[in-house]
């Protein structure tokens, strides 16, 4: 899974593991550093969690 994390100064897309699904949110586990054993869990809106990223050809150019 890919999770979109929205911070005050940036947006970050990180690999994540799906932990739990509710009606309108999902709980994902992700790591701040891929080499770290310490993981963080975060509840995100469903639209911020995807199985893949798709870029449209020519979009935004």
Features:
single chain, 61 residues, three-stranded antiparallel sheet, 6 strands, 51% strand
Can you walk through the features of this model?
The structure is a single chain. A three-stranded antiparallel β-sheet has the order 2-1-6, with no helix packed on it. It is an all-beta fold and 61 residues long. It contains no helices and six strands. The chain has strands spanning 2-6, 11-15, 17-21, 25-31, 39-45, 49-50. The termini are far apart. Strand 3 (17-21) and strand 4 form a beta hairpin.
SSE topology:
Elements: E1 2-6, E2 11-15, E3 17-21, E4 25-31, E5 39-45, E6 49-50
Strand content: over 45%
Low-confidence runs of at least 5 consecutive residues = none
The overall strand count is 6
Shape: globular
| Main beta-sheet annotation | 3 strands, antiparallel
Note the total helix count: 0
What can be said about this structure in brief?
With 61 residues, the protein is mainly β. The protein has no helices and 6 strands. The protein has strands spanning 2-6, 11-15, 17-21, 25-31, 39-45, 49-50.
